[in-house]
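User: Can you predict the 3D structure for this chain?
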Amino acid sequence: MKPGQPCFFRAEHHCSIYERRPEHPCRDFVCGWLREGSPFPEDFRPDRLGVMVIPMRWRGREAFVLRSAGRDPDEDLLAWMRDLSARTGSPFFYERDGGRYGFGPPEFQAEMSERVARGEALW
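Assistant: Here is the predicted structure, written as structure tokens:
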């Protein structure tokens, strides 16, 4: 188990060991939609959305990773995230059809392209 990774204890729309889940990474992990001051609506609950929104930092800015919790992000979700990114400057990463992608300001795009060229992980 790793933070933000779908877990093998995941059952149909819930954690099968929720009451016994370990402190790390499970109890310590706070999904982006649940964080205080979250910009994400209730519909972004991973069990409803099918995607986890994982908060992270990039150059001191809030950033996010969208990870499958049952499905890849669809175009409606990506459009919502692109709008959030344009309004706030918060970049995001996502996986779709086995590929990894990023969206954000030009300096973010340049840095991620350099990382890919060096063979580094994006997140």
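Residues 114 and 120 are 9 Å apart (CA to CA). DSSP finds four helices and six strands in the chain.
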